[in-house]
Amino acid sequence: MKEPKAWVLQVLEWGPLLLFFGVFMLNRGGDVALWGQSYTPLVFATLVFIPALALATLVRWRLTGKLAPMQIATLVLVVVFGGLSVWLNDPRFFKIKPTIIYLLFAGLLGFSYLARRNWLQAVLSEALPMDAEGWRKLTMRMALLFLGLAVANEVVWRGMSETAWVYFKTFGMPLVIFVFLMANAGLYRAHALPDPNDKAGG
């Protein structure tokens, strides 16, 4: 199967989230009436986000033939908690969704670390070839990262405005993850596996 272009994958990754942000910002001045029901801007944006993410995930699967466990888990939790928010017209369910996702990832990675399973290596080894010790270190660091993000999400949605939480979800969380990945560049280099294409004596 031909690998899709990088920009296509980026659109599928960011498109639904940016659509969610745009719909919320356009409607944050007041409630949205739909099908005889009045929705808050966040619940209405969630209503748009759920099918957009489902469609983007389906297209990614059709183009690549595979989905990462994180992508599947995210879609399931978005449908469940986002659906509850829309059904009950209560944005709190969607707000706690990142907390559940990040606690789930932190728990799985923490168990993987303690059990010496290296599940993270099984998922990402093709993109980031490292030795077993490198993966153990990265697994623990990522478990702590996700735990911290879960706590941060609870602090922001419970203690700050809805708009602040939307900014945090759309831009803050991805930025924290990006900075984390860049900050671990030294780990990647220190534990990188030799390139099998390199010949001795060059």
TrEMBL record:
It is a multi-pass membrane protein. The chain crosses the membrane at residues 6-27, 39-61, 67-88, 100-119, 164-188. The keyword Cell inner membrane applies. It comes from the Bacteria. Pfam families: IspA. The keyword Manganese does not apply. Coiled coil: none annotated. It is found in: Cell inner membrane. InterPro entries: YciB. Its main location: membrane. Plays a role in cell envelope biogenesis, maintenance of cell envelope integrity and membrane homeostasis. Belongs to the YciB family. This is Inner membrane-spanning protein YciB. It comes from Paracoccus aerius. The gene is yciB.
